[in-house]
Amino acid sequence: MSDQSADIIDLLAGITPSSELAAVRAQRTQARENAQLSFTALLEPEQPGDFSLAERYAIAAFVAQLHGFPEAAEFYADLLGDEDSQLAAQIAAAAADVVAAGAGRGPVGAYREPDLASEGTHAAVWRPDADAAERLGAHLAAGLAHAHALVFRPREARPEWLAALVAAGWSADAIVSLSQLVSFLAFQLRLAWGLRVLGGSADAFKPASAAAPASDAAGEVPDPALDSAIDPAPANLPDLVTAYPELARPDRFTQQGLGWVPWLAPVAEAELTATQLDALIQPERAKMPYFRLLARDPAALKARTLTDLDIFFNVTDGIGRAERELAATAASRHNGCVFCASVHSAAATRESGRAETVQRLLDAGVGADLGDPVWNAVVASSVALTDTPLRFGQEDIVRLREVGLGDAEIVDVISGAAFFNWANRLMLSLGEPEVPARRARA
């Protein structure tokens, strides 16, 4: 078990209580406290159910190693080693196998949306080999394969991914917790790494494999022949998993509002418990399938929601709302989350009044010149932070400082981009977007 008195992000970032960065983090108290509560809810819950503590630590150790963050990899390996030293060695071997297989760079993969097919990149599929799977057990082996896919190729998520978990014995509640755990780690590791870079202590450990963006990697070039279309009616899905043969799907990134449908059954609105209703924070979210699905793990949902609200709406002594939404949009564009990009690009437009500039980011991609040094710096830094292994470095801090941002504003950019590496993976791996019926008929 971890030291309950230690703030994990501060620990991983090398932040001391008396430092300037500690004071900056204290300006976002809800985000800081609830990121810690997310760790507790997902790594050390009082009732882990059929997703054991050892398996949770194993997934975390694996994901940390995939990100190329030595301090985090050591931290989670130690937690796992205290629980099961033999399993810790197996997880280290699995992470090494990912690198050896050339399956360790992201975000990559084909898009679901047909108009984005030309942007698709080849993505290596990894899963434990037969011998490793036998040692790990089918349940954990499937969890590791799912974690790898979520880390590196979230935009390729399909209902079949969840079917594979169900076949290995994962329940709907456990699948939600697994998705939350991997997605939370994508946030936690990026936030801690970004803070570590800002504090000046990360460059010496920057992995050589992170020197180039994912889209520039050898063998990972756009391929117009990639089939990006989601199978509307995949065969042999278990009862727990739902596909939508007649769904009106978006073709591209858009600022227009989209719906979202879940591949797993949400908690029925009438069956939400008092704990689940409390976890929603905002009562109107009881009408939304996404939040009712996440309510299967209410402690994780509540902590995540409060983290989200503080990062994006607490503007005291920080960067503006428009730039936070821009960071979210850039991360979503790079990961390939059309739903998240629609919500937060529209918010960036609403906060800035710059609809054409925001649309340029959606249409031309994260390399587009937005005609504004601050916006270009926010996008470039958000993209660097979104790549895996972690690529964000001192050059990104310099770029942000050169356009006039101070530490508190830079932390807001880092936090916004990091958080959407959490949000994107949940939205992409648990369901898919739909065009509202009124527009689909037009």
Automatic annotation (TrEMBL):
<protein>
    <submittedName>
        <fullName>CMD domain protein/alkylhydroperoxidase domain protein</fullName>
    </submittedName>
</protein>
<dbReference type="InterPro" id="IPR029032">
    <property type="entry name" value="AhpD-like"/>
</dbReference>
<dbReference type="InterPro" id="IPR003779">
    <property type="entry name" value="CMD-like"/>
</dbReference>
<dbReference type="InterPro" id="IPR010195">
    <property type="entry name" value="Uncharacterised_peroxidase-rel"/>
</dbReference>
<keyword id="KW-0575">Peroxidase</keyword>
<dbReference type="InterPro" id="IPR023982">
    <property type="entry name" value="CHP04029_CMD-like"/>
</dbReference>
<dbReference type="InterPro" id="IPR023923">
    <property type="entry name" value="AhpD_Avi7169"/>
</dbReference>
<feature type="domain" description="Carboxymuconolactone decarboxylase-like">
    <location>
        <begin position="298"/>
        <end position="377"/>
    </location>
</feature>
<dbReference type="Pfam" id="PF02627">
    <property type="entry name" value="CMD"/>
</dbReference>
<dbReference type="InterPro" id="IPR004675">
    <property type="entry name" value="AhpD_core"/>
</dbReference>
<keyword id="KW-0560">Oxidoreductase</keyword>
<dbReference type="GO" id="GO:0051920">
    <property type="term" value="F:peroxiredoxin activity"/>
</dbReference>
